[in-house]
């Protein structure tokens, strides 16, 4: 089995690694002695890596090549495709790997799990590649090797962990950079008839389509969901008023929160890492200009209670209002990424979800009630209380604590869909009753489709 890993081929100026994957799959499918063994894998890695272009995506394609000379030809052609189709001179640093393997590689799996939440070095990737005889090609500064290898490692365990699918349709080159002609009402109709088997199609609060990107890249739209069959139907439900090159279905870790599984250590916040932590709110939330809210979190155990981490909830997430309802003593699980500290500001956990585990009681302190039932008035500091109505006086009484109902409830609070990262697990995916049909790769369904045959003929 040949695993082909690929990353960092695009730049902000255009192109797209998924599109290159589409072209490579198209190329592979044209050989009678090559079988593509699974939906290609589109993984998202640590979203807090500062040098990512957009969504920190990487690709792995699984194929079986039954002929040595075809294998040599295929590898050479793919290397050329990467050279020709990448933005090497404008910021891309492609990495391409070929790994001929029929078993799991646990060190590679560990590497790919680390790539979800840590910052990994190129050196570690190259060391692994050499150790396991993985054929590597790097261009530019070669950083793409990290994502390419992580994609290959992920392909070895994704079937046994939570995963989703995405169908991505590609535009005709003459339309790149122009507004995408996908009818909004048809997106809403598709969303309503395919939910909960598709997700993040439309943000109803902000009346915004989420399936269409906004850049000059070749992606027309992408629909994410639980089941490849439903995704094909969903794409066909859209009213698209421009020609498409074709589409492809990817298997993915998008929408799974895979980057937040690891535990962030209160004592050792590492810049650009991702994960979650459980703690108690240690300071009252503060709102700053722009509507962003900050609060401190401390560990629940007394031994470490003096350590506090600052949490930031930014206004565009829609979670800032939730954070403002928190109070000291609330117990939370929060997920997020660590923003680098500066000489003026400490490291901060940028919050991606808040799970309220326990609510502290909140009190206001009021004057006591009189024996006649009216509220007593203070007679001055240390002078006790008196009743204006019946004349009762007491020096012994003191203020009484009255519990105030909390305006926030226990439970999970997620950002608005428009603020979701690719890996953010949407609310509907927490519902255990979503049943997946038999999702074994079925080469006979239309998981890859090309409308305009002329386009990729030149590739070979
Ligand atoms: P797009 O989503 O448009 O494909 P991108 O956001 O994936 O773009 P890339 O251009 O692929 O951005 O850049 C991400 C770079 O970061 C790649 O070189 C990748 O190898 C590297 N990278 C990914 N994860 C890590 C990590 N955990 N540690 C270090 N480098 C990483």
Q: How would you describe what is shown here?
A:
- The protein has 460 residues and is α+β, with helices and mostly antiparallel strands.
- It has helices spanning 17-29, 68-85, 106-117, 122-131, 144-155, 184-194, 228-237, 320-324, 454-457, and strands at 2-7, 34-36, 41-44, 57-65, 95-100, 135-138, 164-171, 198-199, 202-203, 208-209, 219-225, 244-252, 274-281, 286-288, 292-298, 309-313, 331-339, 348-358, 362-366, 377-378, 385-386, 393-394, 400-404, 411-413, 448-450.
- The strands form 5 sheets. Strands 1, 2, 3, 4, 5, 6, 7, 8, 11, 12 and 25 form an 11-stranded mixed β-sheet that branches. It has a 5-stranded mixed barrel with strand order 13-15-16-18-17.
- Residues 453-460 have low confidence and may be disordered.
- It binds adenosine-5'-triphosphate (ATP).
- Adenosine-5'-triphosphate binds next to helix 5.
